[in-house]
Specification:
By secondary structure, the protein is an alpha+beta fold. 36% of the residues lie in helices and 23% in strands. The strands form four sheets. It has a five-stranded mixed beta sheet, with helices on one face. It has a four-stranded antiparallel beta sheet with strand order 4-1-6-7, sandwiched between helices. Helix 3 packs across helix 9 and helix 7 runs antiparallel to helix 8.
C-alpha cells in the first residue's frame, strides 16, 4: 500500500494519531524501558539502526538478562547485549568506536555486541565523528509524548517547525509552520538591525526566504515570527553559523560519508550524518536531511524514529508522537495480527 509523505501525515492522519495515543504511549514506554535496560553504564557499545521485521521478529536480550524483547530503531546497546532475528527479519547494528556496522539475520543469530575496544578501529577522526553521532542519538530517544488535541481551524495559532531555536548552515532557508493549507499568515524575520522580512499575507504553511531580501549575517541571531489573524504570534530563533564553522561541519560530514563501506545502507548513512549534524546544534539541517530521505524512502521505520527523536528534542510533542506512530505502523506491517484479548 502506498504511503503518504510526512507533510500529509501531519494533517491527514491527525485523528488516527489521537485515537491511538494511549496505545502509542504504551509502545513508547516499552521502547524507553528497553533503551534504559540496554544503555551502558559507560561508553555506548553500539546502536540499533535499521530494523526490518518482515514476517519474522527482531529481539534484544540485555547482557546478563534472560528475557528477549522487541527491538526498536535507535535503541542503545552495551557490550554483551544480544540480538536475534527470525525468518526473513534483519537488523543493522552500528558499532561504536568507528567499527562499522553489522547486519544480523536469522543465519547470524544470536549476535552478541562486542566491547567498544574489540576489533580493529577506524582512524581516530572517523572514530570521533561516529562517537559524536552515537552520543547524540543514544540520548535523543525517550518516551513518546502523548499527542495533544488539535483543533482543525484556519485560525489555529501556528507552530513553527523550521528553523526552530537552532543554528543553521548558510544555505537557502525555507520557513515552515504547522497551519491550515488555506490559512493566511503574517511572517516576519527580525534581526539585530531590525526588520529583515515582512510578509503580511502568506497563504499556506511555508515560505522560502527571498533571494532579494537582505542577506542573513553569520553569527547574528534572528527571530522568525508567524501570526494567524488575531492569535498571539509564535516566535522561534535561529542563527546562521559562521563560514569557517560551516566549512568544518561539512568537512566532517564528508569524512563520515567517505568512511562508509560500499554496502552501507542509505538509511544508516542518513542516521549517522544527521546525528553528527545534531551534535553540532544543527537541528534544522538534520531534520531537512531526514525529510529528504523520507521523500525517497517513505516506508522506513528507522527514519521516522529518527524524525520523532528530532521533534522530541525540538519540543514538538504532536509531531514527535505522529512520527513515532508511523514508525510503529511500519514495523507492524506484514506481521500476523495479534490474537484478540480474552
Amino acid at each position: 500500500m502506498a504511503r503518504a509523505n510526512y507533510t500529509e501525515l501531519r494533517s491527514g492522519r491527525g485523528r488516527t494519531a489521537l485515537l491511538l495515543a494511549p496505545w502509542l504511549l504504551a509502545w513508547a514506554t516499552a521502547a524507553t524501558a528497553q533503551s534504559m535496560a540496554t544503555a551502558p553504564a559507560g561508553e555506548t557499545a553500539g546502536m540499533v539502526g535499521e530494523v526490518k521485521p518482515g514476517k519474522g521478529r527482531v529481539e534484544t536480550k540485555p547482557a546478563g538478562g534472560a528475557d528477549w524483547r522487541a527491538t526498536r530503531p535507535l535503541a542503545t546497546l552495551r557490550a554483551g547485549d544480544s540480538l536475534r532475528a527470525t525468518e526473513d527479519a534483519a537488523v543493522v547494528v552500528v558499532l561504536s568506536g568507528g567499527r562499522g556496522t553489522i547486519s544480523v539475520n536469522a543465519a547470524r543469530s544470536p549476535y552478541t555486541v562486542p566491547a567498544p575496544d574489540a576489533g580493529p578501529a577506524r582512524r581516530d577522526k572517523v572514530k570521533a565523528l561516529v562517537q559524536a553521532s552515537l552520543g547524540f542519538l543514544s540520548g535523543a530517544t525517550g518516551e513518546t509524548p502523548r499527542a495533544a488535541l488539535v483543533t482543525r481551524s484556519v485560525t489555529v495559532p501556528p507552530v513553527v517547525l523550521a528553523p526552530r531555536n537552532t543554528s543553521v548552515l548558510p544555505d537557502p532557508l525555507t520557513f515552515e509552520w504547522v497551519g491550515h493549507r488555506a490559512g493566511r499568515y503574517a511572517v516576519q524575520v527580525v534581526g539585530p538591525s531590525g526588520m529583515m522580512l515582512d510578509r503580511p499575507e502568506v497563504v499556506g504553511n511555508r515560505l522560502v526566504y527571498p533571494a532579494q531580501a537582505p542577506p542573513l549575517a553569520p553569527g547574528a541571531g534572528y527571530t522568525l515570527r508567524v501570526v494567524a489573524g488575531s492569535q498571539p504570534p509564535k516566535d522561534s530563533w535561529f542563527e546562521v553559523v559562521a563560514p569557517a564553522r560551516a566549512e568544518a561541519v561539512r568537512a566532517d560530514v564528508g569524512v563520515l560519508e567517505q568512511s562508509f563501506e560500499p554496502t552501507e545502507s542509505a538509511t544508516m548513512r542518513v542516521i549517522l550524518k544527521t546525528g553528527l549534524l545534531s551534535s553540532n546544534g544543527l537541528m534544522h539541517d538534520a531534520r531537512k536531511r531526514v525529510l529528504e530521505a523520507l521523500a525517497s524512502t517513505p516506508d522506513d521505520p528507522a527514519l521516522y524514529t529518527r524524525l520523532g527523536a528530532l521533534y522530541e528534542r525540538m519540543g514538538l510533542r504532536q509531531q514527535a508522537s505522529t512520527a513515532y506512530q508511523e514508525a510503529q505502523l511500519l514495523m507492524d506491517a506484514g506481521r500476523p495480527s495479534a490474537p484478540a484479548p480474552r
